[in-house]
């Protein structure tokens, strides 16, 4: 039975590894209910979890999960001691703590970008996790740790990727790697689509000339007349003929 469970766990781990980009060390997000069940069933989480997943792990929790155990009193004191040994990941509810279930779901977002495994016994959390693709679920049953089968949301996501409707996280990472090798990927801190700076050119010399100021009070000169209008008409002088018709000019009579 133990060998069968490990084979199933290896198969599920490979499913998340190749379809959602999970890598070692696996980050396991734990709440107080899982620690309480481990304490009750005498399960050593740090020792048994790496053997079950067959890989390196990082156990972590949130400040909201610790606060919840503190408010529940001495009944969960042992679970609180176990949970305090794990890394505390920063959550958005630092000033105003919320319930552990709401905090865990907020850490996963819509697509679990940080690749968390979630270890919990809370039914409300498990129902919320099954709606998010790419979230492995761990729980304790019959004194053993069990990795749940992929949810229907995860299976639908993988099927959509295979049909070409979506791009898997692994494919996105390979695309980014290829772009970096080709030198076409945007560098960190540089916004995509940034406009290139134009080279500074010399100003237009005509734009640097001072504008001529019009003199006030001086009438504007009249427009020049055309060449034809400016010429005076020449009068033609006719010669007076004599009675004899010799064509000579008649003498001018002198005053007597």
From TrEMBL:
Which gene codes for it?
A: utp23
Where is it localised? Nucleus, Nucleolus
Q: Which UniProt keywords apply?
A: Nucleus, Ribosome biogenesis, rRNA processing
User: What segment(s) does the record annotate as region Disordered?
Assistant: 177-256
> What GO terms in the biological process aspect are recorded for it?
rRNA processing
Organism for this UniProt entry: Gouania willdenowi
Give a single Pfam family match: UTP23_sensor
Q: What does this protein do?
A: Involved in rRNA-processing and ribosome biogenesis.
Which InterPro entries does the UniProt record give?
Fcf1/UTP23, PIN-like_dom_sf, UTP23_sensor
Q: Which family does it belong to?
A: Belongs to the UTP23/FCF1 family. UTP23 subfamily.
Query: Carries keyword Nucleus?
Result: yes
Predominant place of localization = nucleus
**UTP23 sensor motif region domain: from which residue to which, for each copy?**
194-213
Q: Which PANTHER family match?
A: RRNA-PROCESSING PROTEIN UTP23 HOMOLOG
- Gene Ontology CC annotations of this record: small-subunit processome
Name the UniProt record assigns to this protein? rRNA-processing protein UTP23 homolog
């Amino acid at each position: 039975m133990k060998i069968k469970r490990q084979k199933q766990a290896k198969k599920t781990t490979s499913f998340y590894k190749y379809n959602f980009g999970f890598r070692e060390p696996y980050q396991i997000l734990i709440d107080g209910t899982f620690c309480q069940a481990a304490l009750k069933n005498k399960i050593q989480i740090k020792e048994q979890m790496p053997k079950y997943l067959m890989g390196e792990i990082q156990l972590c929790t949130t400040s909201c999960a610790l606060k919840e155990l503190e408010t529940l009193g001495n009944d969960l004191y042992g679970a609180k001691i176990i949970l305090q040994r794990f890394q505390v990941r920063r959550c958005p509810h630092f000033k105003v703590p919320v319930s552990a279930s709401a905090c865990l779901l907020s850490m996963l977002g819509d697509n679990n970008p940080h690749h968390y495994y979630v270890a919990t016994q809370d039914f409300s959390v498990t129902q919320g996790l099954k709606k998010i693709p790419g979230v492995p679920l761990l729980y304790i049953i019959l004194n053993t740790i069990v990795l749940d089968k992929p949810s229907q949301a995860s299976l639908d996501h993988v099927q959509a990727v295979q049909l070409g409707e979506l791009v898997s996280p692994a494919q996105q990472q390979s695309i980014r790697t290829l772009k970096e090798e080709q030198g076409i990927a945007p560098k960190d801190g540089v916004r995509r689509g940034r406009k290139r700076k134009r080279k500074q050119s010399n100003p237009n010399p005509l734009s640097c000339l001072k504008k001529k100021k019009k003199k006030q009070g001086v009438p504007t000169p009249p427009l020049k007349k055309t060449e034809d209008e400016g010429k005076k008409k020449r009068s033609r002088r006719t010669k007076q003929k004599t009675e004899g018709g010799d064509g000579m000019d008649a003498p001018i009579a002198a005053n007597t």
